[in-house]
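ARCHIVE ENTRY
Sequence with per-residue tokens
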Amino acid sequence: MIKFVVLAIAITAVHCQYGGYQKQEAEYKEEQYYDPPKYSFEYSVHDPHTGDIKSQKEERYGDKTQGYYSLVEPDGSQREVHYSVEGKSGFLAQVHKEPGKYKPAPEPAYYKPQPSYHQPQPAYQKPSYYH
């Protein structure tokens, strides 16, 4: 009889702890918004002292990207590249080179660094009777 009472108390305890509680899952729906990528940028540099002359412009909307860049090469020619990418077609480029449009870039100047210390002078000087 005691085993029956202990068993009834254990079942009641388990029922009160887990059986009477019904877990309600929260309904959460994550809404996914898809905006296709869209950007546009442009820049240019014109430094005649160093010969650094270049520019670029690019636009993208979704899977379609198109743009161009141009630069002056060290020999003075100008290279202009028009490119496009559409979906999975890959990178398509058209290169146009115009020779002799600018003067060649100056050669970099190299200066040998001078030592930062002074040449030591001898403390001993020859007597004047040694000629």
About this structure: The two ends are 135 Å apart (CA to CA).
